[in-house]
Amino acid sequence: MTTTQLFIEVGTQLEETSGLLQYGLVALFAAIPIVEIFVVIPIAIGLGLDPLVTGVAAFAGNTASVVLLVAFQQRLATWWHRRRGTAADGDGVGGRARARRIWDRYGLPGLALAGPVVTGIHIAALVGLAAGSKARAVAWWTTVSIGVWTVVFVVASVYGLSLLGIA
Fold it and tell me: Transmembrane segments in this chain: where (predicted)?
């Protein structure tokens, strides 16, 4: 699925629902690693959903998925390596290279703050854990990052749509 198709599908699903279910879908879409907050917030606000409620729902969905990932990362890694019959050492996932470079230069705070727009917050959290950060610190910094980026995306979406005369 291309990025354009992904945007269209998210928008279609949001348009086909109404009321609180729309905000439930915003939270659900924000929890999905490929979609996250940077896709769902502009689409939801562009469709006329309340920016404040959209931001809260997106923040809650994205944060919940990352906190669950951090909490269960070790169990998931053990299960995955048993299933594949590989050792659980190293961070050999190709998508982690960019996140690892950010980690080496800026540490956990930099990785978490850059994560939503550079690698996706889920990969950033996994790299932070693989680099030896404590789960509580990863959860804290990713939550702060999601909060900051949620505000940025909501404000940018509202302002951008008003500049275009859409909202």
Answer: 20-45, 51-72, 106-132, 138-166
Rg (CA), the chain: 17
User: How far is it, in rounded angstroms, from Cα 65 to Cα 14?
Assistant: 20
How far is it, in rounded angstroms, from Cα 62 to Cα 42? 15
- Read off the tokens for 138: 């990863």
Q: How many CB atoms lie within 10 A of CB 104?
A: 11
pTM of the full structure = 0.82
Alpha helices in the chain (DSSP H): 3-15, 20-31, 36-46, 51-84, 97-118, 121-130, 135-163
Question: Which residue type, as a one-letter code, is found at position 63?
Answer: T
Q: Please name the residues in contact with 133: beta carbons below 8 A apart, sequence gap of 6 or more.
A: 108
- pLDDT digit string, tens, across residues 68-116: 999 988 787 778 778 887 655 444 454 567 666 777 778 889 989 998 8
Give 100's Cβ-side CA count (13 Å radius).
11
Provide CB contacts within 8 A for 92, sequence distance 6+.
none
What is the total residue count of the chain?
A: 167
- Closest by CA position to 90, among listed 132, 135, 51, 134: 132
Q: 101 — phi, psi (to 5°)?
A: -65, -40
